Amino acid sequence: MKYNRVFGIVLDSVGTGAAPDAEKFGDVGSDTLGHVGAFYEGELKIPNLQKLGISNLRETPIEGVAPAEKPLAYFGKMQEVSAGKDSMDGHWEMMGLPVTHALSLFPKGFPADLLDKLKKFSNREIIVNKPYSGTDVIHDYGEEQMKTGALIVYTSGDSVLQIAAHEDIIPLEELYKICEYARSLVNEPPYVIGRIIARPYVGPDKDHFERTANRRDFTLEPTGETDLNRLQNANYEVIGIGKINDIFSNHGITRGYHNESNHNGMEHVLETMGQDFTGFSFTNLVDFDAMYGHRRNPKGFGAALMEFDQQLGEVLAQMKDDDLLMLTADHGNDPGFRGTDHTRELVPVLAYSPSFKQTGESLGVRATFADFGATVLDNFDVANVNGTSFLSSLK
């Protein structure tokens, strides 16, 4: 069967166990869903994900989330082939453009020549310049930033250059212009950085600083055509919700929505479900990653999963027979693991439509995230370049 609308939702960082190549990334033993479930000691209540088959795709079920006897969705896992484990790598690969060359990393901070250009352009000093937790860095240096007007520049284990500034000290438009300039500096060797991230925050002092929803990602331009472009070129509508617009630098996207939160993102999904269109709605829900994974907060992570699950119930109730819903993730960020960086994990894939005639079955372990986009293209009779569609398995 072919579907009129496909809704893809990426639960950012909701991995489901270490990938076969996890050792290369120092991530053996990571398991985002497994460790969140273990933290809740059987009290993780995600009934909608459960009935779709979120535990059926695992060798060991999530604690307290038994496999469904008759799963509504087809279920499986996907393995990443891209060189990194960043959101950009995961999403680009999902849309048929694996990242084959490792991006620049800066475990000892950024080089002086790059920082000198940023200082000259912004006419501001730079502080920190090393890997740091985003919440810790504003706690430790936010007051200094407010007094001096300097830029807090820091990185992580991913290919990112992040600039934090208090919104009352550096207006958003100025911060965005500085980040745009930084983006222009790191698009080709010797420095190729996946994302420049503006990290504005507010609050009176270090004990009350909070990062705001005015974060903005300035992502490396896609290095080739993606499945979003292919859909748009075939005259299908492509809706980007949340971080999708930044990750693809708005390429291949007909219209987009900015998310204030996961909850707001799901409201946008429900809003688009009430609209008449033919094509692909692609959503990223970043709170799992930004607010709980990087902060190693399993309690908050689980609470966010349970809130998502409630809104997922609203989505399921609103689906039409010619709608297809596909849920997945872009990497792991295990709050029960060491460090504060993403974790190299397999990701879940769940596919559901009210029109299915039989109980969901296993899709196995897909060899690449690109199978996700290949399935979307197959549905709309658009040729794909990477990945293998599983559309014919959905019955």
UniProtKB/TrEMBL annotation:
EC identifiers of the protein: 5.4.2.7
Q: Which GO terms describe its molecular function?
A: magnesium ion binding; manganese ion binding; phosphopentomutase activity
Source organism's superkingdom?
Answer: Bacteria
**NCBIfam families xref list:** deoB (TIGR01696), PRK05362.1 (NF003766)
UniProt lists the family membership as follows: Belongs to the phosphopentomutase family.
Its biological purpose: Isomerase that catalyzes the conversion of deoxy-ribose 1-phosphate (dRib-1-P) and ribose 1-phosphate (Rib-1-P) to deoxy-ribose 5-phosphate (dRib-5-P) and ribose 5-phosphate (Rib-5-P), respectively.
Keyword Iron-sulfur included in the entry's annotation: no
Q: Which Gene3D superfamilies match?
A: Alkaline Phosphatase, subunit A, Phosphopentomutase
GO BP terms in the entry? 2-deoxyribose 1-phosphate catabolic process; 5-phosphoribose 1-diphosphate biosynthetic process; metabolic compound salvage; nucleotide metabolic process
Q: How is the cofactor bound?
A: Binds 2 manganese ions.
Pathway, per Swiss-Prot/TrEMBL?
Carbohydrate degradation; 2-deoxy-D-ribose 1-phosphate degradation; D-glyceraldehyde 3-phosphate and acetaldehyde from 2-deoxy-alpha-D-ribose 1-phosphate: step 1/2
| Residues that bind Mn(2+) 1 | 12, 330-331
Q: Catalytic activity, per the record? A: 2-deoxy-alpha-D-ribose 1-phosphate = 2-deoxy-D-ribose 5-phosphate; alpha-D-ribose 1-phosphate = D-ribose 5-phosphate
State the Pfam families in the record: Metalloenzyme
Q: Residues in domain Metalloenzyme?
A: 5-382
Locations listed in the record:
Cytoplasm
What cofactor does its activity depend on? Mn(2+)
What protein name applies here? Answer: Phosphopentomutase
Cellular component, GO, one term: cytosol
Keyword terms, alphabetized: Cytoplasm, Isomerase, Manganese, Metal-binding
Q: Which organism is it from?
A: Paucilactobacillus oligofermentans DSM 15707 = LMG 22743
Q: Which residues cross the membrane?
A: none
| Residues the record lists as binding Mn(2+) 2 | 289, 294, 342
